Amino acid sequence: MWRCGLISDGSIHFVHPCGTFVERVSASKVAFDAAPGQAQKRTGAHPERHDVDSTRIQFAIELRIDVRSALRTLSRDDQKIARLRLHFTPMEIARVLGCSRTAVYRSLVRIRQALERFDLDKY
């Protein structure tokens, strides 16, 4: 749980319980003093808008639909591993799911084969 504290200069700091309040404040003050210069002010209310290529957007949408279709041919466990693989390593997936790394690697082979069947292996 986060704690809130008031510093002598009147600023409020939120402190994680992993360290004492004094340790966190002194660390942030040292980091602030060591920071080079100040950030530049924003000049405009809105950043410049860049023209978006509609063909790129359409391609991204179609690719997402194709990947989703390919993954639907897999079992629920393989679909879960495919989603987890976006953020975790096979070893971490095995630990989270409580299975062996070999089982995860076999599932990744099935996922790769499903993507190849839909000609998505080049992406």
Structural description of this entry:
The chain is mainly α and 123 residues long. Among the domains are: 3-32, no CATH class; 67-117, Orthogonal Bundle (Arc Repressor Mutant, subunit A), CATH 1.10.10. It is built from five helices and two strands; from the N terminus they run E-E-H-H-H-H-H. It has helices spanning 21-34, 54-72, 76-85, 90-97, 101-117, and strands spanning 3-6, 12-15. Strands 1-2 form a two-stranded antiparallel ribbon. Strand 1 and strand 2 (12-15) form a beta hairpin. The model has no long low-confidence stretch (mean pLDDT 78).
Question: What's the helix and strand layout?
Answer:
Elements: E1 3-6, E2 12-15, H1 21-34, H2 54-72, H3 76-85, H4 90-97, H5 101-117
Antiparallel strand pairs: 1-2
Helix pairs in contact: 3-5, 4-5
